[in-house]
Amino acid sequence: MKRLMIVLLFALLVLPFYLVAQDQSATSDKTKPTFWxxxxxxxxxxTPTIDQNSIKTQxxxxxxxxxxxxxxxxxxxxxxxxxxxxxETYTVSNTAPxxxxxxxxxxxxxxxxxxxxxxxxxxxxxAGPQGSFFLNESNPFPSFTRQKNNFDLQFxxxxxxxGFITLDVRYSANLNNSVETNIQQLNWKNAVNVTLxxxxx
Length: 201
Fold this sequence. Notes:
Number of domains: 1
Largest sheet: 8 strands, antiparallel, barrel
Helix content: 10-25%
CATH architecture: Beta Barrel
Structural class: alpha+beta
Shape: elongated
Oligomer: single chain
Distance between the termini: 36 Å
Strand order of the largest sheet: 1-2-3-4-5-6-7-8
Low-confidence stretches: 24-28
Number of strands: 8
Mean pLDDT: 77
Number of helices: 3
CATH class: Mainly Beta
C-alpha cells in the first residue's frame, strides 16, 4: 500500500506539467486558459433526494468547505482541500445519547477527462485518491481511540455549466477494503459525495 501511494503521489506531481504542455501544444489558440481555481462546498448525501429540506438536514449533519485547483482542459489534474465536519451520536452506559462534531481535513487529488463540451454545458469523469485527516472533535468519546487518517479511492463524474459552475458526484472505495467489499458497498446507504464549485480563471 505504501509503495502504491508513493507511485501515485509521484505521478500526480509530474502530471500537471505534462497536462499543461499537452494542452498548449494541442491548439494554436494560446489565449485559452489551462488553469482554474475556486471555492467548493459539498456534503455526503446519505439519501438521494432533490427535496430542499432533506438536503438542508443532511447538510447540517455533514458538510465540507474548501478550494480546488484544475490544471488542463481535456485531460486535467484537480487537487482539492476541504475542511469537513460531520456529527456522530454515542451512548455511555445508561446515560442519554451524546453528540460529537468531528472535524477533518479532506484532500482529494482527482484526474479528470472531459468527454463532452457543448459550450454552455460540458460533462466529465474523474477518479483519484482522497486522504482524510482527523483534526479535532467537540465531545470526545471516553476510552475510544479515533482513527487519525483514512485513504479512499474516489470516482464519479459531473458537469460544468456556463463555463464556471461545476458540479461533481462521486463514490468512495476504501483502500483498506477488498475489491469485493467495495463493490458491495456501492450504494446510497454508504453516502455519495456531492460538491458544487465556482471556477475562476
